[in-house]
UniProtKB/TrEMBL annotation:
Name the record gives this protein: Uncharacterized protein
Length: 156
């Protein structure tokens, strides 16, 4: 039986699914300029953009996060429509989110959407930057991994 399982795991498609699919390059790092006194979406990635296997959706496991920050500004970081954190600090490197993002020991799980909205309360425009990196798994695989890889459970 163990040999049969091992043989199945060596199949390329199963190996790829078990490893997951990395976030698309254009979805790892996003930025936008926000005028003084305005809100803007800095980062957005939703399950309409994630791959599908037939009718089976994929689930995102967020493993690395980073953002820049300015005085009198804040981010609203939402996962699946729920506020994860009101961010009023740098996450990762002060030199920028792509230089040294924060690695999460327990990945955060998103079933529907990852979104960062920023408010610029400053008197000048700022370029807001966010990095979210992770892996997408088919929902069936995600159910198996959710308990072992993450302390975050989802009500589904």
């Amino acid at each position: 039986l163990l040999f049969k399982i091992y043989k199945e795991l060596k199949k390329p498609t199963l190996k790829a699914v078990a490893r997951g699919i990395p976030f698309q390059d254009d979805k790892v790092y996003q930025f936008t300029t926000i005028a003084p006194g305005a809100y803007g979406v800095v980062y957005s990635y939703d399950n309409n953009e994630w791959p599908r296997t037939g009718s089976v959706p994929f689930v995102a496991f967020i493993r690395r996060v980073g953002c820049n920050w300015f005085a009198n500004t804040r981010y609203y970081w939402r996962i699946d429509g729920q506020l994860k954190e009101l961010v009023q600090r740098v996450i990762g490197s002060p030199a920028g989110p792509t230089n040294s993002p924060m690695n999460l020991s327990d990945p955060l799980i998103a079933y529907e959407k990852i979104e960062w909205v920023a408010y610029n309360g400053d008197t000048v425009p700022h370029v807001f930057e966010v990095l979210n990196d992770g892996v997408l798994y088919p929902a069936e695989v995600a159910k198996l991994l959710e308990g072992s890889e993450s302390s975050v459970s989802h009500p589904r």
